[in-house]
Specification:
The protein is mainly α. The protein has helices at residues 5-15, 23-39, 46-53, 72-86, 91-106, 114-122, 130-139, 155-166, 172-179, 187-200, 202-206. Helix 1 (5-15) runs parallel beside helix 3.
Amino acid sequence: IAVAPAIAAALAAECGEGEYAGEPQASRREAALDVIDRARPKEVPAAWVEALAAILPGAATTGVRPGPSPPVEAAFLGPVLRTLAGLSLSAAQRTRLAPQALAIAGDATSPPALVPLALRVGGPAETIPAPLFARLVAILGHGPGDGRSAGDASPLDRSAAAAARATATCSPAVLESIAATFETLPPGDVAVLLPGITAARGTPLTR
């Protein structure tokens, strides 16, 4: 019943903009987000997309916000991205969310765990902008493109980055830099990335 118009609107209202100074209101927002995450309907109500987009950095209100407003919105950024990544968003809804999602993925201050989630929201993965490949490679453990040390990325972060990279197309130079990470990656992550390397042949495959 979560997608019934009145209930969908009520859930969106709990997630959307408002005053969240106290813990009770924050708990209600968390509960509404949990319902949306569990419902996962075939057609996502537009009200949900708009409400969750308002929580993401760069939401258009009176202007463009440079980032989430602490403390509640920052705390909900990960769960919101995780929920959006699990929803069956339409092409129009992904287009609506893509600028904000890709901005999060490209932000050097974003934790590594948020980057693959943001890319899933802003998909399809083959449209990943070239600069974001550097972030994914850095999360895999190679190169200085992350702005955070490679040690900040957990094994799960690296696996998620591998999955995001595996479904995207990129240049031979990027593929070669990815191949250079194989010496330190777990076999499972190498297996995810290897088809793209073998298909490219040439220098990446030699590496």
